[in-house]
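Much of our argument rests on the idea that a fold can be written as discrete symbols. This step matters because it turns folding into a mapping between discrete strings. The record that follows shows the chain in one-letter code together with its fold in token form.
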Amino acid sequence: MNILYDHQIFSEQKYGGISRYFAELLKAFENKEGIKTTTPLIVSNNHYISECSSINYQSFLPTGFEQSLDLSYINKINTQYYINNADFDIFHPTYYDPYFLGLLKDKPYIVTVYDMIHEKFENLFSSADKTPENKKKLVENATKVIAISESTKKDLIDIYNMDPAKIEVVYLGNSLIPTHDPNFEIPMGVKKYILFVGARYEYKNFTTFIKAAKKNLDDAAELSVVCVGGGAFNKSEKDLMSDLGIADRVFQFDLDDTTLSLYYQNAELFVFPSLYEGFGIPVLESFACDCPLICSNTSSLPEIANNGAEYFDPYSQESIYLAIKKVLEDSNRRKELIDNGRQRLAFFSWEKTAQDTKKIYEDLLV
């Protein structure tokens, strides 16, 4: 069984959940019988595929190419060549560009849908963004669709009026391995802190969270908020924290995975206030690092976290504040969340993701 993937996400992302998902799949398939994978890449700066021995690529532009040349265009031409000439059974694109639809002839293809954020929060995206249009076209023409949660499957059915039988749910896994450093210290003299991880787009709900957390900081003079990832605070965020009087107690760091695990392990708790997630990999990261999880009661998060989280209404500052307060002050609840999270994590692994995906491929070829 030969599976052809494409270049898309490895051309666009240096880091990111989608490219990590495909890299983990490719790594797992390298050790499985009955499946061979091909991923045509000429050049990529993606961090995760360096661990995939099945991909031959360059991490820099070859001599003679202009640095401004679009990496995606170079790789797309190469992928089109493979679609036209390679021996493969199933095509699995890594994102939603429909460039290949006229090339596949009678070959089946599977598309993975990660979330329906563009469709549910269309006001947050530019009208020039073709993602919703392209996704709909691919989903409608796909032989099979993989959704990364039951929540995402439900959204696909509700928004596209899809036949549920066309959709298979395959959960993701966790890549964050806890590391231990007895000398670990956070800069700026931070000791006790609430952790926020990831981008701070509007649907990630950072503004509502930080307004709520201001009350928790007022309750405990030694407490801070530490944000990891998402880049430095912008002017609007700085102004907000200054207006709230907490600018000297909220910090931002960009970290590698090894250091991130230490930030999870040493946090009082991790808050995930997103309005919408297709899966929510940070849920599993917090479980892996024995960090108590407090999160929104929306979309996929209760499905993935189950009894491993203290939940709140992400639209209510008071609800967020009270959930944080409860876990900060109740050591028994903290221990219960850590224990439940550790047990829940056992339901998820990249090995299981690969096994379930391989079965979908096999069933398609029967």
User: Anything to note?
Assistant: The chain has 14 helices and twelve strands. The two ends are 11 Å apart (CA to CA). The mean pLDDT is 95. The chain has two domains: 2-173+349-365, 187-345.
